[in-house]
Amino acid sequence: MKQAVGTARHYAVRRVNPFRGVLQVVEIADARAYSTHGDDWQIQVLARRPDTTWRSFGDMPAIEQYFHFGLWDSDRGLHGVRANPVLDIGRMNAAAERLAHALRPLVDQLPFPLVDAYECWSTDHRGAPVALLATTEQRQRLDDIRPSHWQATQLSDHGFVSAALLERGVPAANDGSARHHAERLERQVRRLGQRQAWFERSPSGAGRLLQANFAPDDLPADAFPPLGLKSHWEDPETQALAADYFAWQAPRLLTLQGIDDQQRRYLEGLACRRAVELSANYRLIPRILDKARIEAARVEARLRVAAS
């Protein structure tokens, strides 16, 4: 269930394949806001499309869609408004102001509860989940979603470098690709996880299979990799490569809400090595175990940003 405060609904969904953190969303009847880090919020307002406003056919229904309207944050309020003269700016501004009014008390409740309980996983030949490909909160959308192969990073992101591969003499980039290490991991995932299956995850973490195929109808919570990718590999090279990937993703992975304390403590130690990225995701971390260590990393991040 999406959470409600007054007339506003607030919830979160994961940004997966590749994993890019947890998106926070606030909705009212005619406007919505979303934020990737909980600081700046993109404001969208529902309005009639310009090409339907002056239709000559009176029996044709007007078509409404969301338009980007501006930005909001708790310090500056609503700003960066894009005034399109062919839209009803007065109505849109009123909707944006109502949304901003709803947003202000909600930002103190971050992160919002996750609602995307339907998950598509690549699975091995036994039906065991390997990598998370897609999520949604709407059961009726499952037939419309066509997950692609698992991606470690966005195609434009060349930041992931595996120390284990460098030690083996494997360059991070070659003549064919600037994301060579990410592609090595992606190939291993494709080799193992050649099938796909949708599951509905319960609050306990167990998963109910939504298609009748090779897998058992239900899987226990511990059958699903908590970080969205299998962590235990038979091949030592892939095992080390996956560990390096988790270390690189640690600041984002800390925003996940279903991981236990042992996993969270492990991620906190890794994330502190990437202080700037950790600081950027700080507001969306649901629980912190070593608060002193995290605060020290945030101080380091502020100093590094100031010196850059």
Notes on the protein architecture:
- This protein has 308 residues and is an alpha+beta fold.
- The chain folds into 3 domains: 107 residues, no CATH class; 113 residues, no CATH class; 55 residues, no CATH class.
- 30% of the residues lie in helices and 22% in strands.
- The chain contains 8 helices and 12 strands.
- The strands form 2 sheets. It has a 7-stranded antiparallel β-sheet with strand order 1-2-3-4-5-6-7. Strands 9-8-10-11-12 form a 5-stranded antiparallel β-sheet, covered by helices on one side.
- β1 and β2 form a beta hairpin.
- α5 crosses α6.
- The longest helix is centred in the N-terminal third of the chain and has 18 residues.
- The two termini are 43 Å apart.
- The mean pLDDT is 91.
- Treating each run of at least 4 consecutive H or I residues as one helix, how many helices? 8
Overall form: globular
Radius of gyration: 22 Å
Report, as a whole number of angstroms, the end-to-end distance: 43 Å
- How does the major sheet shape up? 7 strands, antiparallel
Taken in chain order, the helices and strands follow as EEEEEHEEHEEHHEEEHHHH
- Tell me the strand percentage band: 15-25%
Uncertain segments? none
DSSP helix fraction: 25-40%
Alpha-beta classification:
alpha+beta
Strand runs, count:
12
Kindly report the spatial arrangement of strands forming the biggest sheet: 1-2-3-4-5-6-7
Number of domains: 3
Mean pLDDT rating = 91
